[in-house]
Design a protein that fits this description.
Mean pLDDT: 96
Number of helices: 7
Distance between the termini: 11 Å
Largest sheet: 7 strands, parallel
Shape: globular
Low-confidence stretches: none
Order of helices and strands: EHEHEHHEHEEHHE
Length: 234
């Protein structure tokens, strides 16, 4: 038996994303989502999370989108926005770990201030998997007693959400038979997280990311498919 977590990333990005997450949970196989705490649709996502207790909701830690919740100087690029993804990955040594921990703590605390308890931690653009940032994500995991999305072979002494992370349900990998073929790449008895991005199209999503049209197909497939008998939701 394979135990499956189907996580919808970017919860809170926009109302269209939020409704895509909600529908694929209520009508489909999405059983988890992670929320951006600095996005246009964050408050709307919090409302949905509070009224949908069957949906596991964690924090989607942000470092490369929008504006930070703190004034940590090493995180900020042009006009008060976070640095670009290529700059964070290209020069992680320019990020102060103290600034990073302060910002991610603020994002977690904002989620907690809503009265919700996060299920786990992951991050936008997988930035928590950058090796230089590992001490920070490890400390936050221990501080808040939360598992984190596995994001590299160096995640050896931190509690992870699942044994395996699959990131290929994306772009051309979004296919009708994706979950039927899961047993070909996942060993029986393992827990696996599949990262997804379901959404309905709105202006905020279209203006904010180049990956928007494919999210509609993700939402359709995740709402309509039936899992094979040897795959069960966590």
């Amino acid at each position: 038996m394979i135990k499956l977590l189907v996580n919808a990333d970017d919860f809170g990005f926009s109302r269209g994303v939020n409704y895509g997450v909600l529908d694929t949970h209520l009508n489909g196989i999405v059983n988890s989502a992670t929320m951006m705490m600095n996005a246009e649709g964050t408050e709307h996502a919090l409302e949905i999370a509070k009224s949908t207790p069957t949906l596991k909701v964690g924090v989607h830690l942000v470092l490369t989108f929008g504006k930070p919740l703190t004034s940590a100087p090493s995180l900020i690029g042009e006009e008060g926005f976070f640095k670009k993804q290529k700059d964070v990955y290209g020069h992680p040594e320019d990020i102060s770990l103290e600034d990073l921990e302060q910002e991610w703590t603020a994002q977690i605390e904002k989620f907690l201030a809503s009265g919700l308890k996060p299920a786990h931690l992951d991050s936008h653009h997988h930035v928590h998997g950058i090796k230089e940032f590992y001490p920070v994500i490890k400390r936050l995991s221990e501080k808040y007693d939360l598992p984190v999305r596995i994001a590299g072979p160096h995640f050896t002494d931190v509690k992870t959400v699942t044994d395996i992370l699959m990131v290929d349900f994306f772009g051309e990998g979004v296919t009708e038979n994706y979950f039927d073929k899961l047993q070909e790449s996942v060993e029986d008895g393992k827990t696996v997280e599949v990262m997804t991005h379901p959404a309905y199209l709105d202006a905020r999503l279209k203006d904010g990311t180049s990956y928007y049209q494919e999210r509609l197909e993700e939402a359709r497939i995740l709402s309509e498919i039936t899992l094979p008998e040897n795959v069960k939701l966590l």
